[in-house]
Protein backbone atom coordinates (compact mmCIF):
# COMPACT_ATOMS: atom_id res chain seq x y z
CA UNK A 1 0.00 0.00 0.00
CA UNK A 2 1.43 3.37 -1.04
CA UNK A 3 -1.54 5.43 0.08
CA UNK A 4 0.09 7.10 3.05
CA UNK A 5 3.08 8.67 1.22
CA UNK A 6 0.70 9.81 -1.53
CA UNK A 7 -1.62 11.39 1.03
CA UNK A 8 1.29 13.17 2.66
CA UNK A 9 2.47 14.51 -0.74
CA UNK A 10 -1.00 15.81 -1.53
CA UNK A 11 -1.30 17.44 1.88
CA UNK A 12 2.10 19.10 1.46
CA UNK A 13 1.11 20.35 -1.97
CA UNK A 14 -2.17 21.76 -0.63
CA UNK A 15 -0.53 23.45 2.33
CA UNK A 16 2.09 24.94 0.00
CA UNK A 17 -0.67 26.43 -2.16
CA UNK A 18 -2.43 27.74 0.92
CA UNK A 19 0.81 29.35 2.11
CA UNK A 20 1.36 30.94 -1.31
CA UNK A 21 -2.16 32.35 -1.27
CA UNK A 22 -1.67 33.60 2.27
CA UNK A 23 1.50 35.44 1.23
CA UNK A 24 -0.35 37.14 -1.64
CA UNK A 25 -3.18 38.16 0.70
CA UNK A 26 -0.74 39.59 3.21
CA UNK A 27 1.06 41.44 0.44
CA UNK A 28 -2.19 42.89 -0.95
CA UNK A 29 -3.24 43.89 2.55
CA UNK A 30 0.05 45.77 3.14
CA UNK A 31 0.02 47.29 -0.36
CA UNK A 32 -2.55 49.91 0.57
CA UNK A 33 -2.30 51.93 -2.67
CA UNK A 34 -2.37 48.70 -4.76
CA UNK A 35 0.74 49.73 -6.68
CA UNK A 36 2.05 46.17 -6.62
CA UNK A 37 4.96 47.28 -4.42
CA UNK A 38 5.41 47.85 -0.71
CA UNK A 39 7.08 51.14 0.21
CA UNK A 40 8.45 52.51 3.49
CA UNK A 41 5.20 54.45 3.97
CA UNK A 42 3.06 51.36 3.58
CA UNK A 43 5.23 49.42 6.04
CA UNK A 44 5.31 52.26 8.60
CA UNK A 45 2.55 50.65 10.72
CA UNK A 46 4.62 47.42 10.75
CA UNK A 47 7.88 48.40 12.50
CA UNK A 48 9.11 44.82 12.57
CA UNK A 49 8.86 44.69 8.77
CA UNK A 50 10.27 48.18 8.31
CA UNK A 51 13.33 47.33 10.41
CA UNK A 52 14.24 44.53 8.02
CA UNK A 53 13.33 46.44 4.85
CA UNK A 54 16.92 46.47 3.55
CA UNK A 55 17.09 42.68 3.75
CA UNK A 56 13.86 42.31 1.75
CA UNK A 57 14.77 44.85 -0.90
CA UNK A 58 17.08 42.62 -2.91
CA UNK A 59 17.44 45.00 -5.89
CA UNK A 60 17.58 48.08 -3.64
CA UNK A 61 14.92 50.08 -5.49
CA UNK A 62 13.38 51.08 -2.13
CA UNK A 63 10.22 49.10 -2.70
CA UNK A 64 9.28 45.49 -2.06
CA UNK A 65 7.82 43.53 -4.95
CA UNK A 66 5.65 40.46 -4.43
CA UNK A 67 8.63 38.34 -5.56
CA UNK A 68 10.90 39.93 -2.94
CA UNK A 69 8.17 39.57 -0.29
CA UNK A 70 7.68 35.90 -1.16
CA UNK A 71 11.35 35.02 -1.30
CA UNK A 72 11.99 36.76 2.01
CA UNK A 73 9.17 34.84 3.74
CA UNK A 74 10.19 31.60 2.05
CA UNK A 75 13.80 31.96 3.17
CA UNK A 76 12.91 32.99 6.69
CA UNK A 77 9.78 31.09 7.65
CA UNK A 78 9.52 27.91 5.64
CA1 LIG B 1 12.82 46.10 -4.45
Automatic annotation (TrEMBL):
UniProt keyword list: Signal
Signal peptide segment: 1-20
Recorded superkingdom: Bacteria
InterPro entries (alphabetical): EF-hand-dom_pair, EF_Hand_1_Ca_BS, EF_hand_dom
EF-hand domain segment(s): 18-53
Gene3D superfamilies: EF-hand
UniProt-listed PROSITE patterns: EF_HAND_1, EF_HAND_2
Name of this chain's protein: EF-hand domain-containing protein
Species this chain originates from: Pseudoalteromonas distincta
